Amino acid sequence: MGVERAALVKTGQWRLGVVFATMCGAVQYSNRFYEEVLKEPATASPILFPETVFNATSSHLSAIFGSQAANYTLVGDSAEFLAALHIAADWLQDDIVDGCLVVGSEELDWVSWEAMQLFNSNGIAGEGAGAIYLEWDKGEPGQDSIIVEGITEPALWLNQREKRLAAQQARAGLPDGISRQAVLALSTAGHAKTDGAESDVWEDWLGQRVASGLLLGNCMGAGVALNAVLACEYLARGIAAEAILSAAGHHHQCLAAWLRSA
Length: 262
Prior knowledge:
alpha/beta, Peroxisomal Thiolase, Chain A, domain 1, 4-stranded mixed β-sheet, 10 strands
């Protein structure tokens, strides 16, 4: 966001929104609350109640920056970061904020990872965080600016609808005119069973492919955020002029986004 913008936020001259996306939420705090309840219900701290914990990180980030603008937390699957980008774009379009920090993060916790191993016993766990800062394009982008040209609506997949069909819908929802040489950032993590649908849908793509999950493991809610940062690095360094973010969520939705350098 830069030092200048941060200073304006603290003085109230810049409305900074924060959208935080995660898959498992603040699991450790929830575990702490339940542990206290089991040990001594009368003294268990209600401030740790799980339903109030989810927005704690977003609120804390706003407090650090001194922002009193909107902040929100989305708890979904591994594709939720692109849904968060969608909300940030809506806030900017509706003039709710002047800029918006979109964060995807995940903490490694044995409860959530043991649950995922039920579906992929050979999976490698990962954690971390990535963030993208958005401002409304006023027609004069800076030299190093990266433009979000489009984000698809979530394509849902359930027991009654194959993940492959949702991934196809997400790809088809991208705007026309994308270069066939755009770098493609996939949400795959090296697991044939969970990666298959997304890999099949993008099998014919001619441009370069990247996937942070192949190096860092399955970072759940942070994976697509890390891919977004990676794609922005490719654009900022001139390695590619356009990038596609593909997000095939673990259990809920598929989305895609188109980025290009200004």
